[in-house]
Amino acid sequence: MTQLETELYSVREELTSMWGLVHSQLQKTLSALINLDRDLAHEVVSIEKRVNAAELKIDRDCEDVLALFSPVAVDLRFLLAALKINTNLERIADIAEGISKFVINADSSFKPQLLETTKVVEMFSEAIKMLEETLNAFENGDASSVRAVFKQDDFLDDINRNANDFTIEYLKNAPEDLDQALYVVSIIRKLERVGDHVKNIAEEIIFYLEAMVLKHSSKKSLQ
């Protein structure tokens, strides 16, 4: 391997490790939400420091490779995509931390019927699946499979749009759960942003693999 290839391999390994860490943060946050596991939620908040440190190192390493080797073509696209993917992963981790803080501050376990009616668990699971699929596409160099993420993001958007209606319907029969319902709506809003960040990651994977810029593209061209 050339020195450039060695450096690119190192960045790739760091980025996939960051991906796995953020994926784990989301999974732990979902489990903490369902089970009101405050210890697990505190763990997510604590690990956020590792995510921040990893983001800074990846940024620094990408910038060093760009400065020292002046890569071109696919190598340049990889580094530019890695920088943006790294930023979006860190923001997803921030959202997981924010949701975990909701769990820590909750007075009691979230009512199963509330979680079911608002579809928040379904939404959470889909967001985690989207993150898994982008990682698989990145590792396998498969730009075609990552396009499924755009339709999955539409699914998250639909739940977000209907969140108020779902919540109002639930509160008609359980007005005493107003505080919990407000927490859940806030979580749904955060999960919608997770979907947006994963979609951004998918766009960067396509840019890296196909040299196609999809930012601001119509939905038709994305799918």
Automatic annotation (TrEMBL):
Signal peptide: none annotated. GO terms for cellular component: cytoplasm. It holds the Pfam family PhoU. Keywords: Cytoplasm, Phosphate transport, Transport. Residues 16-102, 121-205 form the PhoU domain. SUPFAM superfamilies: PhoU-like (SSF109755). InterPro entries: PhoU, PhoU-like_sf, PhoU_dom. It is found in: Cytoplasm. One of its GO terms (biological process) is phosphate ion transport. Plays a role in the regulation of phosphate uptake. This is Phosphate-specific transport system accessory protein PhoU. It comes from Paraflavisolibacter caeni. The lineage of its organism: Bacteria, Pseudomonadati, Bacteroidota, Chitinophagia, Chitinophagales. The gene is phoU.
